[in-house]
Amino acid sequence: MKMQRILNLEGAINLRELGGYPTKDGTTIKYNKLLRSGDISNLTANSLKYLKKYGLKYVVDFRSENEQQTWSDVSSDFYRIYSDPVYPLTGNGDKLAGAINHGDYSYLGLIYQSVVLDKHGQAAYKMLFDLLLDNDQDHQSLLFHCAAGKDRTGIGALLILKALDVDNETITKDYLLTNLMYQDSKEIEKTLNDANGNQDINKMNMTKADLESITSIFNAIEHYYGSFENYLDKALGIDQAKLDKLKQLYTE
Questions:
Q1: For 139-196, how does the pLDDT look when each residue is reduced to its tens digit (9 = 90+)?
Q2: Which residues make Cβ contacts (< 8 Å) with residue 4, sequence separation at least 6?
Q3: Confidence of residue 215 (pLDDT cuts 50, 70, 90)
Q4: Rounded to 10 degrees, what is the CA torsion of 175, 179, 68, 88?
Q5: Model's pTM, two decimal places?
Q6: What is the Cα–Cα distance from 195 to 215, expressed in whole angstroms?
Q7: How far apart are CA 147 and CA 71, in angstroms?
Q8: How far apart are CA 27 and CA 29, in angstroms?
Q9: How far is 252 from 248, CA to CA, in rounded Å?
Q10: What residue ranges define each of the domains in the chain, with the CATH number in brackets?
């Protein structure tokens, strides 16, 4: 199957591949293992056929119970859907995030800090990481999504990429592809899915300010947990052995 960053499937919103990103230790994230997306409640028969061939086995839905009931994911016999709502937060995250805000972080950055520091938010992403570890067979992939594929999904993606040792700038550029997808998805698809299979997001125009906004999330984690690795262990239940397994499963 052709390696593509943008999967423009009928009935899917902002569906993208996380494979191909380099890590700081010299490996690369595997293709056909990790997908991030927005709403997939309108997948067509052709899209399902593609995803079956792609090896999709796990679908993690970050949307609220009401969203899931109103716009239900399309079910199929080749994957299982896991309900994993990120909201509502319990409230402890807002208090923690505010304590490290010195006027330098955007409002959205503060919301993201709240999510990653909140006990309910952490429980949601713990389920994601547990399922990532379950996805241990070749030619099987996991898709996680929310409504737009930007915020709840964006946080999931940045936690995964950070755990796999991708640098902050690449993580930010992957996050910001959502904005570009909503502006001109056809042009972005053409740019990143070119004839040579070039998936280099460094070709996209990003700004330093955006990098600082995403970095603020990791700063909040390090402020309260000492390191991102400690956050993975204490908040998400991913100790060093599990982290090593994740890298084994998702990088090459």
A1: 999 999 999 999 999 999 999 999 999 999 899 989 988 877 766 656 666 666 665 5
A2: 17, 192, 193, 197, 199
A3: confident
A4: 60
A5: 0.89
A6: 33
A7: 9
A8: 7
A9: 7
A10: 16-250 (3.90.190.10)
